[in-house]
Amino acid sequence: MSHRPGSGLAAVSSALLAMSRRLEVRDVLKTIVASARELLDAEYAALGVPDDHGGFAQFVVDGISDEEWRAIGPLPRQHGILAAMLHEEKAERLADVRKDPRFEGWPSAHPEMSDFLGLPVRDGDETIAALFLANKRCPRPESARGERCGFTEEDEELLGILAQHAAIALTNARLYERSRELTIAEERSRLAHELHDAVSQKLFSLRLTAQAAAALVDRDPARAKGELQQVAALAAEAADELRAAVVELRPAALDEDGLVHTLRNHIQVLDRAHSAKVTFDACGIRALPAAQEEALLRVAQEALHNALRHSGADRIEVALARRDQGAVLSVTDNGTGFEPRTVRRAGRHLGLVSMRDRASGVGGRLRVKSAPGQGTTIEMEVPGG
Questions:
Q1: pTM assigned to the model
Q2: Which residues have CB under 8 Å from 205's CB, separation 6+?
């Protein structure tokens, strides 16, 4: 890599743009490390975020494989040269870190490192992370004595620029995640109030009606039967109110978390709430246009609702997979199944019309595979954006 001002500026600009596109803290940390390693043409790079107990809450590396990292062992402690980066304001540029008096060795599986450049990442007066680079790649053959070319003063200046913007990116990511947490907490609080207002009155009525039925069952069975029918109706209404309140939160979660994460969370809730086993598998999914993701989510919810309420299934499998540039969703149950043509003639659509409308509305298509005693599969395919 050339370190002429023009190429250095372009490399810094690319690194800063890469960091600014990330919002999750973990993604920001990975981007900072990868950008620093590429910018300074180093063999290894790492970034550590300190905890309050003498260790690192997070430690991200680049240039080391997952297998090598697992072999190295637990996250490092804040000692030696690592501690210096967290407790001092200046950079450390060493020709050979192993000869520094603060060097305390490393695990047996740790790669050999010599020349070293470290810098604290600071937000005002607070050190929020430390950035480390090792083994500068030389643009020329190493000397006959085996010495490395080492990091330069210009490298230190470039890393300083990167660290300043890394602090901004990391602080913004933390604020974003905190904002998300607050939003989720607010949504949960709102949902609790809505559930209380919408469902509690019906549950209270259900309780009173059930008590009335119990009092009438011996002396007036006919009236008791009517009261029990009212109990069933109130229970169904309460369930529908609950389902509507839960479904209402889905678009917000979809915007924040994406389709796969949102659908997985929804299915985990259903799996806990019902006796049927509900599973989810996703393979090779990439981000789709917002309208397509919402349509897939809504169809999945409707299909799951039908399977749990009408099929009698004890197992429901949801799968989301990439197909060409688009995606295909399938919801399969092992329930009683039905004859789709008979359902249409009887005027019972089980939400099939709305699901087909959602699919066609985003340029996709819906297929229903079912037969009595053979379960049901709802499959929706959407093209790429």
A1: 0.50
A2: 234
